[in-house]
Specification:
With 270 residues, this protein is α/β, with parallel strands linked by helices. It has two domains: 6-70, Orthogonal Bundle (Chemotaxis Receptor Methyltransferase Cher, domain 1); 81-268, Vaccinia Virus protein VP39 (Rossmann fold), CATH 3.40.50. It is built from ten helices and ten strands. The chain has helices at residues 6-20, 28-42, 47-56, 61-70, 81-98, 115-128, 146-154, 167-173, 186-189, 224-236, and strands at 106-109, 139-143, 156-157, 174-176, 182-184, 192-196, 210-215, 238-246, 260-263, 266-268. The strands form two sheets. It has a seven-stranded mixed sheet. A three-stranded antiparallel sheet has the order 3-5-4. It starts with 5 loop residues before the first helix and ends with a strand. The mean pLDDT is 92.
Length: 270
């Protein structure tokens, strides 16, 4: 069985950090375990052999595999429900009252398999109802993992994934498929735009700022400095009065950000 040397591990760590901001420095066993079967199946002679293939692969397929394999995309509808309740009860009414052009810009950064942005879309659908025609409420949802984006576009989920949704939503916004799962209706699917995007890109290609940015349970993969830089970039792309919503375990150091603390996991640009 192949083993991951310190030299090979350091090379993979550097690649993940420089290209994706992912900090693997204390996860040698995880990296070795996650990659072993793939290396054997692809005929790689060593982790170093895989690394050379990784940095020379112009298709990006090996890098996509590495990201998909080493990041955990565990999620389900209404995970950390307090954030969605705040969005529904406070953020949306405030933004709707303050907006003068019918344009609400919301970004789900690190959207995984779509549960988060689709939940936001259902909340917006409920809030605006028949007045939705007068609003532009499409949600931008991004992730670096091609695998989870494909799942998100499919928009089909098992009963376990939707167990915490309100019963009325299950009836109103889902339809059964032939495999005993449920697929979101077209009106909700069309409310979300999915794109592959790396949060470590040098430039954010957005022409306008966002009223709400969700970035939950993503920064747990980053070291403190990378996390600080990303939060400051989010701030620059947040509208005045807008919100950044992070995971409940991702408290932001208030001395290192201009965001104002509102409640656990919720911050506001004033």
């Amino acid at each position: 069985m192949q083993t991951l040397s310190d030299q090979e591990f350091n090379k993979l760590c550097l690649f993940a950090k420089q290209n994706y901001g992912i900090d693997l420095s204390n996860k040698k066993t995880l990296v070795e375990t996650k990659l072993l079967s793939y290396l054997a199946g692809k005929g790689y002679k060593s982790f170093l052999h895989f690394y050379h293939s990784l940095i020379n692969d112009r298709t990006g397929n090996e890098a996509a595999f590495l990201v998909n394999r080493l990041t955990t995309n565990y999620t389900y509808f209404m995970r950390e429900a307090e954030s969605f309740n705040f969005f529904r009860d406070t953020a949306v009414p405030y933004m709707a009252a303050a907006a003068d052009n019918g344009d609400l810009r919301i970004w789900s950064a690190g959207c995984s398999s779509g549960e988060e942005p689709y939940t936001l879309a259902m909340i917006l659908k409920d809030h605006f109802g028949q007045n939705e025609l007068f609003w532009d409420t499409k949600i931008l949802a991004t992730d670096i993992s091609t695998r989870v984006l494909e799942q998100a576009l499919e928009a089909t989920y098992g009963e376990e994934q939707i167990r915490d949704l309100p019963a009325v939503w299950k009836l109103k916004y889902f339809e059964p498929d032939q495999n005993g799962r449920r697929r979101l209706v077209q009106a909700i699917r069309e409310g979300v735009i999915f794109r592959k995007f790396n949060l470590m890109e040098k430039y954010f290609p957005f022409k306008q700022k966002f009223h709400v940015i969700f970035c939950r349970n993503v920064m747990i993969y980053f070291d403190n400095e990378t996390r600080k830089q990303l939060i400051n970039r989010f701030y620059d792309f947040t509208e005045t009065g807008g919100y950044l919503i992070v995971g409940v375990s991702e408290a932001i150091n208030r001395r290192e950000t201009k965001y104002k603390f509102i409640m656990p996991a919720v911050y506001r640009k004033e």
